[in-house]
Design a protein that fits this description.
There is one protein chain. This protein is an alpha+beta fold and 804 residues long. Among the domains are: 28-138, PAS domain (Beta-Lactamase, 2-Layer Sandwich); 158-263, Beta-Lactamase (2-Layer Sandwich); 359-384 and 396-422 and 432-509, Histidine kinase-like ATPase, C-terminal domain (Heat Shock Protein 90), CATH 3.30.565.10; 701-800. Helix 24 packs antiparallel against helix 27. The protein is built from 27 helices and 23 strands. The strands form 5 sheets. It has a 5-stranded antiparallel sheet, with helices on both faces. A 5-stranded antiparallel sheet has the order 7-6-10-9-8, with helices on both faces. A 5-stranded mixed sheet has the order 12-14-15-17-16, covered by helices on one side. Keywords: ATP-binding, Cell cycle, Cell membrane, Kinase, Membrane, Nucleotide-binding, Phosphoprotein, Transferase, Transmembrane, Transmembrane helix, Two-component regulatory system. The modification Phosphohistidine is found at residue 750. Residues 146-219 form the PAS domain. Residues 294-511 form the Histidine kinase domain.
Length: 804
Amino acid sequence: MVVIRDISARVHKEQELDYQQNLLKSLYELSPIGIALNDFDTGAFLDVNQTLLEPTGYSKAEFLDLSYWDVPPPEYQPAEENAIKSMQATGSYGPFQKEYIRKDGSRYPVELRGIFVEDMRGNRLIWSYIQDISEQKRAEQALKEERERLANIIRGTNVGTWEWNVQTGETVFNERWAEMVGYSLADLAPVSINTWLQFVHPDDLAVSNQRLEQHFTGEIAYYEFEGRMRHRNGNWIWVLDRGRVASWTEDGKPLMVLGTHQDITERKQAEAEMLRAKETAEAASQAKSEFLANMSHEIRTPLNAIIGFSDLLRTTELNATQQQYLDNVVQSGTSLLEIISDILDFSKIEAGMLELEVIPVNLHELLQNCVNTISYAARNKGLPVELAIAPEVPVHVLTDPVRLKQILINLLSNAVKFTETGEVELSAAPTAGGRIRFAVRDTGIGISSEQQKKLFHAFSQADSSTTRKFGGTGLGLIISDMIARKLDSKIKLDSTPGQGTVFYLDLELEADPNPPVSSSADTTAEQPEADNTDLEELAPVPTHSVSPPDETRAISAFTTDHATAGRRMRILIAEDASMNMLLITTLLRQMNPEYEIIEAYNGQQALELATSRPVDLIFMDVQMPVLDGVQATTAIREHEKQSGQRVPIVALTAGALKEEQERCLQAGMDDFLTKPLDKSRLKTMLDTYGVTHQSVQPYRKDRFLERCGGDEDFARTMLDHFMADLPNKLEELKQSIGAGDLAEAGRQAHRIGGVAANMEMPLLAAAAGRLERQAAGREGDVLSAFDEVQQEWHAIRLLLGDSL
């Protein structure tokens, strides 16, 4: 009998079981984690996969000879026993970490976890999952070392750190952060963002919040803030708080911000000390300035009388002995004045108070003036002084003419002083580096190399015998060198003892971007029959634009008020020193006995006299009782705003420190006369402001004819050209004003004024000068000034008609 049964289902199940077993075996062998099967009771390894074997160095057969207790080092056995007990109670163990011993005896870290099972035969087994965590441990160690390194760096920098979760407010501080405010972290626990808020100064919190917001919105790359935090002992410390967003939320909001706190209290205290020291130094510098001004005033005032009255005495009849005595007095007074000036200059430079005034300059004219200044002393020694200017040297440049002239005259003076025979030469020529070299050459005694080392030290000369023979403080050259350094140069020299010396300096001079244009060029270009004769060459009248503080000087101050006609010119002198009052009064009356001189011995008297009667010119001493010169000038200018009249005021100053000049200009003074008074300078000042014994004439025929060398035909030609051309110039000026082009109007007025001055038409020149300043925005109304120019032109046309 045959029995046939359908075993398809069983076969299918067996196949499924085989598949599952093969799958499990594959997963078991290919698992990236080591898997082991141990006998629970004996610990023997029953099976392991290849992943577990790889780091051990054992073959599978060798490893299966080992037990659970053989692979870890002995020190792990207590922990293993506890794990076994735990597994009996819970059915599993781990995860926990320990080490395995390789076949070569080395160790490596593993992490284990396992489960307890019983098979169908009742055998108790352990399935363990064992992962080689060597890479993880190396990474953890590297991270640990990096953190320790950073921690050491932070400890070394004494910086506190903070971490802030912007979204939750959770905050982490390090110990140093707490120490800065006098606490430990334990004292502050639990910490949060409120911990920061309770310590920061309320006045500084808004700034901190603003900086954070700017950082969050990307306006600034880092959050940075200096603020105060309250210390445990009650005082405030300063901290520099810096931070940066380290991570953002998915919707773009700041999440974690990491930052540091640095205690900058000492730095802030140092800054405060520096500020106090700076203020103290500035106060000391101001005190020094005031002392210098006062000292200058106190010394120069009597010197003014000594030198001034000595000059007056020279004009009287004296015998030869008296004349010699008087010359000695003047020479000694002048020498003392030079010494005082040197000391004041040296003190100003040493204190950093010397300021340069870079303005347009006619360089060729300046060099000629330097030679002219020294020529008298050279002529007395029979020395020619030559001037050599290379053709490439520009005429119109920008520099400080006063200081450049001071340097060159000092070098020329020394050259003349130390030269007995031969010559002295001042030269200017371009260098290969694009600068201008100014050189003073002499054929004097020369300077040895040893003596040269002492030249640029204060209060020293080449040797003591030089001082005994030639005199001087030894300050002149060092002052010149200090000024040269302010001009971005330095003085150098080449010298051979017994043959002579060359002192030189190289200056980088910028060309004047708006050089003065010859006024007559416009006239003669249109009328070739004039033979291209330049009106501005008739006399040495400056044609360049006058700049502050000279802006109210020169022909611009000629008065257009004809009320002086029929009375003498009235000059008010405000001077508290009776000797100086007598001196300046005497000098003025020598120049013109017709002057009506009014005396005021303090600023209050000067104010009352100047505002109670017409005055044509005021000489105002700066330092006076009751009201000083600055206060009196300010009050006079205020009064003039109501009267509509403006009188020129010239400061009489014993020091002329820059600060004092600025105060005088701000008060409304127009010019300066420095004591001791120089007669020629005083005369120039009178001419500048049109103060004569009679009213100013619109056209001074005799002076113009004198300018033309007495050639009446040439003078008539020049006048005809002027009379024919000026209406066109006035029309162009009117159009520029109407178009609002005040810059061009100023240039046109400048040209008209320059030509009018050379034509000896002072009132027209003055009106044009005022228009030029008003076009530059410095004073008054441009249209009114243009009306004045037209009025003066009309007066000249009525006066001259068609004749000379």
